[in-house]
Design brief:
Structural class: mainly alpha
Mean pLDDT: 85
CATH architecture: Up-down Bundle
Largest sheet: none
Helix content: over 70%
Order of helices and strands: HHHHHHHHHHHHHHHH
Number of domains: 1
CATH topology: Growth Hormone, Chain: A
Strand content: under 5%
CATH class: Mainly Alpha
Oligomer: single chain
Distance between the termini: 30 Å
Amino acid sequence: MENTSPRRSGQALLVFGILVVAANLRASLTGVGPLLDRVQADLGLAPAVAGLLNTLPLLAFVVLSPMVPRLAARWGAEQLLGYALVVLTLGIALRWVPATAGLFTGTVLIGAGIAVGNVLLPSLIKRDFPTKIGLLTSAYATVMGGVAAVASGVAVPISDIAPGGWYTALGCWVVFALVAVLLWLPQMRAPRRAAQGTRGQRLPWGSGLAWAVTAFMGLQSLGFYVVVTWFPQVFQDSGMSAAAAGWLLFLFQAVAVGTSLAVPGALRWARDQRALATICSAIMLAGYLGLVVMPGLALLWSIVLGLGGGACLVLALAFMSMRAQDATGAGALSAMAQSIGYLLAAVGPVVFGLLHTMSAGWRVPLMLMCVAAAGQMIVALVAGRGTVRAADDGVPDPVPSAGR
């Protein structure tokens, strides 16, 4: 009994640290979009070059995510995450430097730091809280989405009133990153967990279940980044003001945050996650179809998309832990799912915009999103249960009779 209190205190500190880390995994990305026109005008950037500020972090996710499990095996997950937070902090600070080189260098470093956090958080939750995966995944997704929504909402007001304008609006998030570094230091100083070997470090490219989880992650990521990139313009072209379109984007994110809070209860009630994931994907399909058929009801469809999108994000993150055998497997599955997932996320907005240009309207690109949501419903039927075996054990993925 004497060791119970220190152990609980250590777990509470770890949970708090995970949530503070999560608060830094989107804010420095979602705050860029509302300021992009000012950045482009002040630095004289071509539209394609300015667009790299949104694309470079996603490409960093694609390149670095597969490397994270091996780096974690070498240095330890806690140490690697601490180093990533330092890199993230440096990247945000460089954005405060009034120079084009600082802006783009900082953006690359931000992408590198976030990529590590994206992969490691599901692994840490699987290792230290195997019975509370749904609850903690929902908690960190809620914090991540909530701070991201605030970041997109306050970017322009901060730019208007703060000395330094948009440089300060982008750089002020360094305070959050520094807090995360300080709160994570106790985890870096703790005794390193025993290495689990390199056998399970290979990514499970040969697993059909792993590909289903990857497809689910990729399709929901594609949906999110298409919505935050293009839907304000979709709403404006249906007769809405720019300010109203911006508020609808905030509403989408706010509803998604609220929905993510309800997922843990549904996970506890469900025998497995197939039905839940399929229903939430169907809600996304309904939102896209609504915009095709009745674009004038944009307020309603923003709420519908937020309801489905928030739940799908939590499920995608939870699958990386739930479908894995252990923490090492969760890291490998997370790396695979996020590398391919963010590749789709990076390509999605480009294809959506290209289809808009070619078709001179939004109906064709919105139909593409309907197809993506329908595909997400199909892969949800596979991704919702089972266990991904180690990449090199040669055993087929089993399908248990009950959810994990």
